[in-house]
Amino acid sequence: MTLIGGPTVLIEYIGIRLLTDPTFDPPGEYKGAHSAVVHRKTSGPAIAVEQIGELDAVLLSHDHHFDNLDNAGRALLPSVGVTYTTHSGAERLGVNALGFTPFETRTLHGKNGKQLFVTATPARHGPVGVDVGDVVGFALGVKEPGDLIYFTGDTLWFEGTAEVSRRFSPKVVVLFTGAAEPRGRFHMTMGSEDALEAAAAFPEATLLSVHNEGWGHLKEDQDQLADVFVKFNVADRLTRFEKGIPLSF
């Protein structure tokens, strides 16, 4: 697994190559086609989009926020085998996009003949009463659904993410953190409190944290999150994830 920046992670497993939420644009101010919010990007990707290579699939938590799918990421999608996303996102994107209902499982057949189970997981992108459109997470499985990796997508910890922990036993959990505050003093993505909930809910999993740098509306970086884990005596649960440096599991 290689963190490219923001929510964008390259996954390579048994020859199958996947990418989460493609974002490759340079720093600047951006507004997505389906959102009124202007996002300020403060740092670019560790790997250029031209260096990514062939992909079997993209796991897209949602298409309507620019910090999860930017111009370069959108241009990449037609060259990918399939893009898994929300039903509303698939309608907007068309072409090779497939929409998921939470806990629906599909089988991804890689170009090398190998396969993975891809299961959509629930996500709530903000407090109750804040409607920012559909969002989804993903669980990958090898022998059975959800036994490999769980990507939360942009979400808070809530009853839906807790249900994921009851259904699946992933080896790695990738938390979309950053305590995002794009519209006011409330979080749209996980902060340290949510990450601690996840640590308790997935006691056997390795935890990684992404989407906590590179954008102006992100209020808690990886160092701050790690400090909280130290203070709660669970520092060993969180593995540091540096941009551009592959982690092997």
Structure report:
A six-stranded mixed β-sheet has the order 1-2-3-6-7-8. A six-stranded mixed β-sheet has the order 9-10-11-12-13-14. It is of the alpha/beta class and 249 residues long. The termini are close together. The relative contact order is 0.15. The chain is globular, with a radius of gyration of 16 Å. The model has no long low-confidence stretch (mean pLDDT 94).
Quickly describe the structure.
This protein is an alpha/beta fold. Helix content is 17%, strand content 27%.
Topology, pairings included?
Layout: E1 2-5, E2 8-13, E3 16-20, E4 28-31, E5 38-41, E6 57-59, H1 71-76, E7 82-86, H2 87-93, E8 97-100, E9 105-109, E10 115-122, E11 136-141, E12 149-151, H3 159-167, E13 172-176, H4 192-201, E14 206-210, H5 222-231
Parallel strand pairs: 3-6, 6-7, 7-8, 12-13, 13-14
Antiparallel strand pairs: 1-2, 2-3, 4-5, 9-10, 10-11, 11-12
